Amino acid sequence: MPYRAPVTDLQFLMDHVVGFAQVAATERFSTVAPETVEAVLTEAGKLAEGAIAPLNRVGDRHGAQLENGIVRTAPGFAEGYRALAEGGWIAISAPPAFGGMGLPVTLCSAVNEIFSAACLALQLNPLLSQGQIEALEHHASDTLKALYLPKLISGEWNGTMNLTEPQAGSDVGALRAKAEPNADGTFAISGQKIYITWGDADFLPNTVHLVLARLPDAAPGTQGISLFLVPKFLPDADGRPGQRNSLSVVSLEHKLGIHGSPTCVMQYDGATGWLVGAPHRGMAAMFTMMNNARLGVALQGVGVAEAAYQQALHYAMNRVQGRTGDPAQPGIIAHADVRRMLATMKAQVFSARAIALSCAVAIDMARATGSAEWAARAALLTPIAKAYGTDIGVSVASDGVQIHGGMGFIEETGAAQFLRDVRITPIYEGTNGIQAMDLVARKMADHGEAAFRLIGEIEADAKAARSVMPELAHDVWSAAETLREATEALLSQSLDDRFGGAVPYLRAFALVLGAHLHLKAAMARAGSGPRAALARVMVKRLLPEHAGLLAQVREGSADLFALSPDDLAA
């Protein structure tokens, strides 16, 4: 079934649920009129449906190939990328001073979801460029900004991030790549990096790598890491790609999914690079890019979930199997369990999308107002959005295969591709376990102030909804109060005990927040109609899981370590 961009749902969320009107009311974004938002979403939807979505199966079947040191991309990817670049879709939230549009991150995030759903493998390319643009904007010298930002923003060149090494995955501090100072102020970068998404492409004249490496006087661990800009081709005096740099693609990874996206093993042999930010402060600069990418990956999960749901719904409405008792609806959608799966999928997609866009609104408000409270809200929501959005992507895609039955396990339907493609999203840009650990540790360093403030808002909104939707409002308020009590208990625990319950805590937080956002959506329609029906599915069928999850949080980690490795192997 052809993908259809959920423009109406995105517009509804921005207008009635996530508070985008606050963003448009700021001085920084005062020119972003409702008609601008509608036009951007509509045009993104048209491009996604017409030019990008048809590449999804092509990329999966053909994949990227390495031939004589050159990465050959899937047929049509060059044209698809060109349409994204020439349409200005990479530049949506980039700084106007270098050719960007300067539009809100919320709008950029909505657009990124649309393109992720259409073809995740291709959308990864501009997503990483957007992250690099932000990192350079905040940390690079004026000279580097002037040379590289216009090229990245226009899409003429693309950007990557190089963190992982064979011995240094989540433990970035274990990296060994070296940076030796050159006499001209540049640095010679040497080492190998793995899992480099879109590390090269045959349709791009230059690729710009951000590489983490150690200076000779670097301290051990993450405190001794610096960040360097290392282009594939060294720009000449006119800013055009000139001499080839001393770097190469050693191989491409053979992956479960996203075959159209080349995942490169990169080798640097004294490659010329420029320092970005202060020496030994590379992680701070790279985290700017990673935080940008984490929200983007959250919406990748949502986008694939949306596409998988659309295909499953179409299949369920047309696949006839078993007696339904309803001649007017012969498809398997008439069966209660299929209807349960579809309703659950739709409710989950809405929740994950609303949480991610709420995070984007907080980012925009923090930038537009300088408010510490908004910055704390954005920081709190980032790991929740990333983990929940990508977990939902996997579960919805899996349910999509289930609804297809045996045909879901057969590649020709395309249902399996959604599951294969989205399975990476809970892993890259910080595994979801690490996101949960970040939530219960760094994001609680304020003694839970940001979390309690959000929980208070959920409770206040639930109280306000009691006169219209008393049953659902009571359940949401009660769940928020249980979350408050669990958060208080969490703050009294040691870090090890917090980590033992971190993943259940994040999931429970997301369920409560998702139910709250469903309730807001239903209230925007006076507590009736499809929005209210979907909210009931979320509150009555999915929200109750929070209680069991939060019970795990109180258990800490002692029982987990009571089982030794030998016990686990027995």
List the helices and strands and how they pair.
Blueprint: H1 7-16, H2 20-24, H3 34-52, H4 55-62, E1 65-67, E2 70-72, H5 77-86, H6 105-118, H7 120-139, H8 142-154, E3 158-162, E4 178-181, E5 187-197, E6 207-214, E7 225-231, E8 233-235, E9 241-244, E10 247-252, E11 263-276, H9 282-318, H10 336-369, H11 372-404, H12 415-422, H13 432-440, H14 449-465, H15 470-491, H16 495-500, H17 502-524, H18 530-542, H19 545-554, H20 558-561, H21 565-569
Parallel strand pairs: 3-6
Antiparallel strand pairs: 1-2, 4-5, 5-11, 6-7, 7-11, 8-9, 10-11
Q: State which percent range the strand residues make up.
A: 5-15%
Mean pLDDT: 96
User: Major β-sheet, in short?
Assistant: 7 strands, mixed
Return the CATH class of the largest domain.
Answer: Mainly Alpha
**Full CATH superfamily name of the largest domain:** Acyl-CoA dehydrogenase/oxidase, N-terminal domain
CATH fold-level label of the largest domain: Butyryl-Coa Dehydrogenase, subunit A, domain 1
